[in-house]
Amino acid sequence: MNNFEYYIPTKVLFGKGQIARLGEAVSLYGTRALLVYGGGSIKRTGLYDKVLAQLKENNIPVFELSGVEPNPKIESVREGVRLCKENNVDIVLAVGGGSSIDCAKVVAAGACYDGDAWDLVIHPEKIKRALPLVTVLTLAATGSEMNGNAVISDMSKNDKFGTAGLALKPKVSILDPEYTYSVPKNQTAAGTADIMSHIFEVYFNRVPGTFIQARFAEGLLKTCIKYGKIAVNDPHNYEARANLMWASSLAINGILSYGAGVAWSAHPMEHELSAFYDITHGVGLAILTPNWMTYVLEHDKSTVDRFAEYGINVWGIREDLDKMEIAKQAIQKTRDFFTEIGIPSTLREVGIGEENLEIMAKKAASMGLENAYYPLDEKDVLAIYKASL
Ligand code: NZQ
Ligand code: ZN
Question: Environment class of residue 44 by beta-carbon count within 10 Å: exposed (0-12), middle (13-18) or buried (19+)?
């Protein structure tokens, strides 16, 4: 196991009715709030009114950045920064999915920065300070509610980049699974795939002696497989929504990666799909992941042990089979699971053809893929994209 520093400062208020503590949580950190939210789901569910009531009760004036897009755009961030600076905002409150939270994070940092907010996306080291951030999560997927990462796009350049900073970790996150009842089936499935991908990205590592991380990872994967299916078919199932929501936070808050870190594979490849075609992040991941797994197993036979472990411990495949057979079955089961929960399985189904694959492969390969579990160059990425067509 590698050395690591554990730092997960977010206070999580989990469960039914926790919204009643929002006003108190916000007033601990600020006096004038910017409320950041998406395209209107929080108004349809009534959450918006509850949030405003909480702020009013605590005498906190509120300014609003609404309409944050899925795959949030830098233009929204700039608008949020402007609102913060013009109105002396001292706390940012994100209510929504990962896109609203990510946008709010860079707004919070941009409000404390003199230059253009895009600098903070491409130069994470420039994030020195940020306004305090409180979140109310409405979609189990990205884990943004408990980590210091944010992913922002500039569609004019087909760029989608992740940034990160300790200052971006939320102070408080309210996780009420009931607020995910209204998430549509396709987003529930995509969110489940995203959570699973965050786990795969660290589960497939070569750091010796990371038994505890691997067993945690397998437990979280089993949780996603069991409850992802239930939540898709029975959206008001509290047990399923609660387990998925907590899995989303634990998958990427550091618990799995501390001591077992490795450069990620599927995410850099997916970010190019979203950057060029604005597709749903989790859908792109679900399409690429089984093809990435197949490619890795075929090109590096030494990976068979981990794939077989995955097959036995997560999918319950019989241990007495040949290891390679177990590994292949595990990959097939992964593919079948994504199909079963209704996610498209090819790039063509989401409107992606061959036209940009080469440039996308080149850009993805420049995102540190040489340090991944199985190092990937441009030609490898292109082959995985083609296999995913
Ligand atoms: O915009 P609204 O109207 O709120 O609708 C959203 C949006 O259309 C809807 N939605 C959210 N909660 C809902 C709901 N609809 C009904 N009921 C609810 N309770 O769902 C749609 C998608 O929302 P979005 O926030 O875009 O989804 P997600 O949470 O999957 O976030 C995706 C973004 O996060 C980035 C992705 O790349 C993508 O840009 N990621 C962020 C990460 C991080 N910060 O750590 C890590 C991830 O790997 C990921 O890259
Ligand atoms: Zn993700």
Answer: exposed
